C-alpha cells in the first residue's frame, strides 16, 4: 500500500524544513511547494530546492507570483528598509495576504494530487506578530478549504497541519535536530546575500539565533 500524499510549503528556512522532516516521519510522500513572489531574500528559493532534494521530496514545485506589484512590505518593496531593531506591533516585514495566497495555491495542488494534508510551518510563539501565523487563521482556512473544493464537497476532508504552531524556536530546533535536519542548508534571513549568508541583524536572524542558544545547540548559520 502506498503512502498518503501531502503538500508541504517550504521556504528554505528553519521552520518549514523542520515541518518537512515531521511530515516525512509520519510516512507521507511529500510534495514541496515554494513561491517566487518577488521577495528580496531570493537565496531562500535555492535553499528550498536544495533541502527538498536532499531530504527526498517526491517533487518540488516553484510557483511564480509578484506580490511586489501591491507592495506594502519590506520584503517585496526595495524602497522600504528591512528593520534591524525590534519594533512594536505588526512589523513592516509582514507581507499582506501572503499565507492566504500560498495556502490557496497549495490547496489547488493538493486537489490535483489527491492529497488530503497540507503542512505549513507557521508559528504563534516565537514569531514576528504576523496575523496569518495564528491558530485561528489556520482553523478558518481549513474550514474554507473544505467548503471551496470538490474533494471537500465529496467528503474527502482536507486538513491543514501546523505542527510548530505552539512551539518555541528552541523546541523547533531540538525537534529538527532529533529528526536529522541539517540546518546549515537552510536560509532564514530577510536580507541574505546571493550565497545565502545571513545578516545577523534582522528579526528573523535574531529569533533563529536565540533558538539555537536556548536549545543549547551550535548554530550552523553562515553569517556575512
Using brief descriptors, characterize the structure shown.
single chain, 224 residues, 5 strands, 11% strand
Task: Give structural notes.
There is one protein chain. With 224 residues, the protein is of the alpha/beta class. The protein has one domain: HUPs (Rossmann fold). The protein is built from 7 helices and 5 strands. Strands 3-2-1-4-5 form a 5-stranded parallel beta sheet, with helices on both faces. Strand 2, helix 2 and strand 3 form a beta-alpha-beta unit. Helix 1 crosses helix 6. The longest helix has 16 residues. The termini are far apart.
| Count of separate structural domains | 1
> What is the fourth-level CATH superfamily?
HUPs
**Strand-residue proportion:** 5-15%
Name of the CATH architecture: 3-Layer(aba) Sandwich
Amino acid at each position: 500500500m502506498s503512502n498518503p500524499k501531502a503538500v508541504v510549503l517550504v521556504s528554505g528556512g528553519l521552520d518549514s524544513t523542520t515541518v518537512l522532516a515531521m511530515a516525512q516521519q509520519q510516512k507521507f510522500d511529500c510534495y514541496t511547494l515554494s513561491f517566487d513572489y518577488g521577495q528580496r531574500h531570493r537565496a531562500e528559493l535555492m535553499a528550498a530546492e536544495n533541502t527538498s532534494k536532499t531530504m527526498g521530496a517526491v517533487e518540488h514545485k516553484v510557483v511564480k507570483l509578484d506580490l511586489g506589484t501591491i507592495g506594502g512590505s519590506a520584503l517585496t518593496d526595495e524602497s522600504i528598509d528591512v528593520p534591524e531593531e525590534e519594533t512594536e506591533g505588526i512589523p513592516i516585514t509582514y507581507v499582506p495576504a501572503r499565507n492566504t495566497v500560498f495556502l490557496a495555491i497549495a490547496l489547488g495542488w493538493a486537489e490535483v494530487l489527491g492529497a488530503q494534508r497540507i503542512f505549513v510551518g507557521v508559528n504563534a510563539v516565537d514569531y514576528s506578530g504576523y496575523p496569518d501565523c495564528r491558530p485561528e487563521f489556520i482553523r478558518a482556512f481549513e474550514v474554507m478549504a473544505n467548503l471551496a473544493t470538490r474533494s471537500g464537497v465529496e467528503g474527502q476532508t482536507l486538513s491543514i497541519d501546523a505542527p510548530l504552531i505552539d512551539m518555541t524556536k528552541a523546541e523547533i530546533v531540538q525537534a529538527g535536530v532529533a529528526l536529522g535536519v541539517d540546518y546549515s542548508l537552510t536560509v532564514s534571513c530577510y536580507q541574505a546575500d546571493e550565497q545565502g549568508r545571513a545578516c545577523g541583524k534582522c528579526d528573523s536572524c535574531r529569533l533563529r539565533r536565540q533558538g539555537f542558544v536556548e536549545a543549547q545547540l551550535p548554530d550552523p548559520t553562515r553569517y556575512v
